[in-house]
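User: I'm designing a mutation panel for Cytochrome bc1 complex Rieske iron-sulfur subunit and want to avoid disrupting the core. Could you give me a predicted structure to guide residue selection? Please restate the sequence first so the numbering is unambiguous.

Assistant: Good idea. Sequence first, for numbering, then the predicted structure tokens:
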Amino acid sequence: MSQDMSEENLPDRPAHEGGSQVATAENPFADPGFPAHQPRRQDIDEKAARSSERTVAFLFTVSMLATLGFIASFVVIPIDKIVYIWPLGHISALNFALGMTLGVSLFAIGAGAVHWARTLMSDVEVADDRHAIAASPEVRAKVMAEFATGTGESQIGRRKLIRNTMLGALTLVPLSGVFLLRDLGPLPEDKLRHTLWSKGRLLINQNTNKPLRPEDVAVGSLTFAVPEGLEEEQHDYQEQLAKAALMIVRIQPNDIKDKKSRDWAHQGILAFSKICTHVGCPISLYEQQTHHVLCPCHQSTFDLSDGARVIFGPAGHALPQLHISVNGEGYLEALGDFEEPVGPAFWERG
């Protein structure tokens, strides 16, 4: 292109609607604008528009039915049922049903939204110049006006069948997640509030597997104990141990500050839960001069001479104490279960 080319001798360029520009010497590559808008069949034929509306509503209805199917599958199909499905082979019937119904539910919502946008919402191209990040009052007013225009062009107010079925699909599909939460495991019911300890159950030394006598616990020592009858062969051994594990310490009775703690002891022998009340780590570090125990996970510190109250760290409450005594044969025994749940706090604890 020669340098002396002027606007008059530039070749003509087609001018389209949508903000077309005329080429100049300073800007030889003009914006041709948008091509002329071609209306869709639904824009000019209400019968076709109603057909699209029914299609979208059908897809949203399929989503609702699939969500209900997901819930029904979760409730009805046994977890151990195996079926043969070609070409997958033998698979879990529950997993297959949950996956298919949830997939259909989500796909139908997406397909309905896409079909709605492509056939009924406005498809007129709009161009807008870039502007500063901080919007002026005029721009904000313009955005709100465009939002109102977009709402009208979506026809959500006019197409009530689409609106109602869409709201139904979007309302039901979250129920799939709610039912999935039920699969995290059986409800705890009151299991968190009870352990294996009960009246008359012996304290068994965890190292020797023999019942403890008072003379087995020396002043300043730390001994770990489990309830009588807890065997490693049990299927729930770890679960029961995590709730019932004990720390046994012996302190001079005059050094026990808390009256209830002293009354629940036997000749200065105290039994406290071994489970930290912060996140449930096992406590194992004992300082006999101060009668403090330290959780190795997050350094929560408890004073065993003062009802195992928290003196440092993130733990929220004291370690539960087990009321103990000695039976007729001279063995240490429990006089009941813990009065409060062991381990970390939970919202039903009260």
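For picking mutation sites, this is relevant: The chain has two domains: 41-184, 191-334. Residues 46-76 form the longest helix (31 residues).
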